[in-house]
């Protein structure tokens, strides 16, 4: 199902992923990104294999904060350890981890529903 026609113009829609990056709207971004309705940010991670609370600092500085943060973990979803989940919750973030493809699709659907959503996405090669 293509939800892109249902998203208001000017918002950041994930239109493709793979080959180490993402297409957001018509713009290509290499590497990990954070996508919010109004912007795309390069996501700098100390170690993509191990998430830390500090890796998500750009998200807790957003005003208003997203209702939900989708974490695209690459080709396969990952479990978010309780300590990390608690640390993110302390910053006002509710997160859900899944594979990157599912995170891209879910982000677009929630965006089409006018939800305040963010996606922190690791690339899929």
What would you note in describing this structure?
The chain is an alpha/beta fold and 125 residues long. The chain has a single domain (4-121), classed as MTH938-like (Hypothetical Protein Mth938, Chain: A), CATH 3.40.1230.10. Helices cover 21% and strands 28% of the residues. It contains three helices and eight strands. The chain has helices at residues 57-60, 82-90, 100-112; strands at residues 14-18, 21-24, 27-30, 33-36, 39-42, 68-72, 95-98, 117-121. The strands form two sheets. It has a five-stranded mixed β-sheet. A three-stranded antiparallel β-sheet has the order 1-2-3, covered by helices on one side. The longest helix has 13 residues, at 100-112. The radius of gyration is 13 Å and the shape is globular. The mean pLDDT is 92.
Descriptive keywords:
alpha/beta, 3 helices, 5-stranded mixed β-sheet, Hypothetical Protein Mth938, Chain: A, 3-stranded antiparallel β-sheet, 125 residues, globular
């Amino acid at each position: 199902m293509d939800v892109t026609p249902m998203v208001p113009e000017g918002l950041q829609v994930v239109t493709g992923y793979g080959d180490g990056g993402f297409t957001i709207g018509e713009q290509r971004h290499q590497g990990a990104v954070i996508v919010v309705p109004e912007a795309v940010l390069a996501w700098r991670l100390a170690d993509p294999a191990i998430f830390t609370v500090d890796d998500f600092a750009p998200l807790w500085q957003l005003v208003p904060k997203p209702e939900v943060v989708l974490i695209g973990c690459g080709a396969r979803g990952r479990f978010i350890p309780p300590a990390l989940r608690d640390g993110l919750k302390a910053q006002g973030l509710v997160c859900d981890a899944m594979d990157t493809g599912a995170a891209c699709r879910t982000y677009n659907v929630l965006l089409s529903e006018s939800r305040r959503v963010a996606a922190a996405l690791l690339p899929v090669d």
